[in-house]
Write a structure and sequence with these properties.
Order of helices and strands: EEEEEEEE
CATH superfamily of the largest domain: CalX-beta domain
Helix content: under 10%
CATH topology of the largest domain: Immunoglobulin-like
Number of helices: 0
Shape: rod-shaped
CATH class of the largest domain: Mainly Beta
Structural class: mainly beta
Length: 156
Amino acid sequence: FTIDAIDDFLKEGSEALHVAVDNVSDNGQFEAVAADPDHGSVSSAIVDETTPDADDTVYVKISVDADSATEGGELTYTLTLVDSDGNPVTPPAGTQVSGDLNWSGAAAGGADTSALPESFTIGDSGSFEFTIDAIDDFLKEGSEALHVAVDNVSDN
């Protein structure tokens, strides 16, 4: 039989795989059957490849709940860990993925929004959410752009 090693995005090092023959029986064709005491088990190791490819990369995806907000409203941003196909990733316990948030646009100056976070940390949940308030002021400004980019991502 063949066991396929699955290529995943987890950095696991060497994982032992042990297979043993046990509870041997037949349909009565032999006088006796048993596992070979010297060759009744094998051990193998599954190791991460030395050069990870796109399938081994976990990405930080950022999304926002609306394209715009009126003054006095809010925008909720969500950062999510995803695989190369965009599927959500369930991280192992103790995971911390962090990075920077780089803001730009006319509304990024500080007068038009509540405080803009400069960094993020995604933990075991696989996502991080924050809300930005659009400040209601007395100025007639029209539409002001607010852009955010994720940068300097690392796992701790």
